[in-house]
Amino acid sequence: MTDLATPPQEHTHVPLQHPRLPGFATLLAAVVATAAAALLGLTLGWNLSGIVVLAIVLHLAGLTIWSRAVENARAATDRLMTSLVWVALLIAMIPLVSLVWKVVAEGAPAINGKFLTWSMRNVIGEPGGIYHAIVGTLLITLAATVISVPIGLLSAIYLVEYGDTSTLARWIRFLVDVMTGIPSIVAGLFAYALFSLLFGPGTQMGLGGGVALSLLMVPIVVRSAEEMLKLVPADLREASYALGVPKWRTIVKVVLPTAMAGIITGVTLAIARVIGETAPLLIICGSTDSVNFNLFGGQMASLPVFIYSSYTQPGSNPEILKSMAWGAALILIIIVLALNLVARVAGKFFAPKTGR
Amino acid sequence: MTTVPTEAGSPKRRLGDLVFANTTRAAGVMILVALAGVAVFLTAEGLPGLGAHAQDLKGHANFLSYVAPLVFGTLLAAVIALAIAVPLALGVALSVSHYAPKSIAVVIGYLVDLLAAVPSVVYGLWGIGFLGPRLVPVYGWLADHLGFIPLFAGPASNTGRTILTASVVLAIMILPIITAISREIFVQTPRLNEEAALALGATRWEMIRLAVLPYGRSGIVSAAMLGLGRALGETMAVAMVLSASGVVTWNLISSTNPSTIAANVALTFQDATGLQRNALIASGLVLFVITFAVNFAARAIIERNDPGKAR
Q: Same domain, yes or no, for A100 and A240?
């Protein structure tokens, strides 16, 4: 009596879906490829990087061929491209990891109290310190900040509050973007040419480094401050105008405090960007083994230039100076990372209390 | 957007407003003046260098024959760096915008920012102390097996301080900016285009190829050009990694390498005197003109195709 429930035997089966690889296919292929590569590599005596490259190639090929056999050509291409995207990410991360590891491994042993508090003056045949370079870097960066923050901030105010879409504003905006691409060495040559004309040929001083770095820093400050000022709601400005407050006081008392968190973040990131610049300082600041607190006279050491010259022109004690170069590189990276961290924290800390 | 009405009847503009408005305008104009100043001062100090003679130009007859090999080296290193960096950067950008889950994408973004934060001199240190020695066996293999290609003719350098190593370091350094800009463009792809492609049965890669990449094409081009501008002007990594001898050669893995303008300035400026320095400044002017043109073109492309403005 249940005859009708039995399906007709001659019905051909039409699948509604293409066959798919199981969900764990990628993982399985990766494991098999790694195992095969390790087996082959170890028997042939390859090193680790060779095995990893082979494993990746095997994985890509294996998964694609498997997918092509079970699924179809389009799915196989999709799987191949997905794997390639991840491989690209992996390759891009290798330098970062190896760089951090190498700098910490080589630099950490060099760092001690003397390293941070001595200069290289009259130090021969023993590890000295990088105090003179730290002082120079801080002073030069301070000079660059003092020059570029007012110019950058005022320009950003002009772009957002006054210029807006005028021709001048559009040109400034465009050329500031172009300026972000000025090579740092050109900035150094510019400062050198400027100071040669102003103070006589061959002048080298810390202030020149500040000028060169500010040329690189101004565009970053302008762009970040402009973005932040744009975020300030127009309501706030209009409320202030409605109370009869002049425009300039509105900007100083309402717009700037509201955007202050973002501006501080942007300035800190800009400092982090230029504090590691080497090429301009090499040209305009020169290098010295002594501490120099005077921005307006004499050559001035800086961390990046110290790293460069100790590693490439180590003189009679290459081992000692090279290890000091790694130590200084570690200090420099720590400073840059600390600035990046400060930028993010400051952004949160100075954020206006909106009460929302 | 916030223009103060100034027609008759409204109170006359206050002194404070006038001063403030003109101060900000002056600051903006000052940036333009600084940019013009770069060109003017480099020209002023560089012009005497154009007339320098052989003894000031490392034996080259005139400035042109002195700077030409440097321009060649600069372009060669930058183009190889670009060839390495662009595919990687597109992969990383796609992984952030379309492949990785949100939480992982944020982490990748931080890591790429970190890559951008490392100072160039540290990259140079890493290139000469870590990457170079590790690439020596690779160069040996390339010279042995692919030596018939002129690029890998060899004999392979045994320090690894070749133009190919320098290009790899450059590629890593320009990766973050190319990634950042292309990621920004990819994220802006209209959601409807992507979903339409998926609804028609496209796989994820086909969706990217049909919807995301065509939409982002001009963005990718300008990102690559900005990366090119960076690579052309990058100094310290090349100066430290490259063992330069200033020749013109297509051989990427030998120990005689072309130098670049920026590296040449950094390496020789300290010891140069008189007209030599003027010649170096003139070569800097050449570099400035090249990078300015590349950056100008890249920014013009972005400006013209800014999706935010078009709609």
A: no
Judged by a CB distance cut-off of 8 A, whether residue A166 touches chain B is: no
In chain A, the number of structural domains is: 2
Q: Are residues A34 and A152 in the same domain?
A: no
For residue B23, pLDDT over 80 is answered with yes
What residue type is assigned to position A325 of the chain? Answer: A
Contacts of A193 in chain B (CB under 8 A): 41-42, 44-46, 281
Give a yes or no: residue B1 inside a domain.
Answer: no
For residue B235, the distance in angstroms to the closest alpha carbon of chain A comes to 6
Instruction: Give me the CATH number covering residue A220.
Output: 1.10.3720.10
Residue A36, domain extent: 17-107
Q: What is the pLDDT of residue B309?
A: 45
State the number of CA atoms in the 13 A half-sphere of A306 facing the CB: 32
Question: Looking at the domain assignment, is residue A266 inside a domain?
Answer: yes
Q: Is B110 on the interface with A (CB under 8 A)?
A: no
Confirm whether A218 is domain-assigned.
yes
Nearest residue of A to residue B129, measured between CA atoms? A102
Please give the Cα distance from B115 to B173 (Å, whole number): 7
E strands, B170-272, are none
Question: Between A and B, how many CB-CB pairs are < 8 A?
Answer: 287
Question: At residue B45, does pLDDT exceed 90?
Answer: no
Q: Which two tokens stand for residue A33?
A: 């490829």
- Which residues lie across from B244 on neighbouring strands? B257
A149 and A53, same structural domain? Answer: no
Last residue of a domain, one of A54, A80, A107: A107
Structural domain of B174? 15-310
Of B225, B211, B273, give the one whose Cα is nearest residue B48: B273
At B166, which amino acid appears?
A: A
The residue from A107, A125, A148 where one domain ends is A107
Reading the block at residue A344, the tokens are: 């993010």
Residue A235 burial class via C-beta count within 10 angstroms: exposed 0-12, middle 13-18, buried 19 and up: exposed
Task: Residue A46: list chain B partners with CB under 8 A.
Answer: none
Q: Is B15 on the interface with A (CB under 8 A)?
A: no
- Helix, strand, or coil (residue B257): strand
- Reduced DSSP (H G I as helix, E B as strand, rest coil) percent helix, strand, coil of chain A, to 5: 75, 0, 25
Average pLDDT per consecutive 10 residues, chain A (356 residues; last block may be shorter): 59 75 83 87 81 87 87 88 91 90 90 82 77 92 94 94 88 90 91 89 87 93 92 91 92 91 91 91 86 84 90 81 90 92 82 58
The CA angle B61-B292-B166, to the nearest 5 degrees, is: 70
ipTM summary value: 0.86
DSSP letter (8 states) at residue A108: G
Query: What are the backbone angles phi and psi of residue B10, rounded to the nearest 5°?
Result: -80, 150
**Distance of alpha carbon A337 from alpha carbon A145, whole angstroms:** 18
pLDDT digits (tens, 9 = 90+) for B190-208: 999 999 999 998 999 999 9
Q: Token pair 């330069």 is at which residue?
A: B244
Evaluate whether residue A65 is within a structural domain. yes
Task: Give the DSSP H or E segment for A222.
Answer: helix A206-231
What's the pLDDT tens digit per position in B72-82?
A: 999 999 999 99
